[in-house]
Amino acid sequence: MEADGSQATSGSPGEAQHDPGKMFIGGLSWQTSPDSLRDYFSKFGEIRECMVMRDPTTKRSRGFGFVTFADPASVDKVLAQPHHELDSKTIDPKVAFPRRAQPKVSRRIDNRILGTQRVIVARQFGFQPGNWQ
Hints:
By secondary structure, this protein is α+β, with helices and mostly antiparallel strands. Helix content is about 25%, strand content about 25%.
């Protein structure tokens, strides 16, 4: 099963459920297909779902995917192995957490930092405030 980067959620809106058998697989080769991902991880246990995330516009792989095992104990088997290589590339499997569970970075703070950096750079090159373009 291939994915285009969009997500379907079940349950109430804004509430992502944690699946203990789901893993995030980072560092995938651009050539990795859902079938090759499934073939590699099936040695750790039965796979319920497997996807390589793709850009919705270009359909090119985004370099990561997800594998969901039927038995959460399979996740421990994957994590017990220190090195994973698929399609001649070292991959980085991790336990997947719902997006809502990730700490959210405030955009306001990021913009303040970026704004401060702009002012510093502008002063170094002799630009006056208000003359940014």
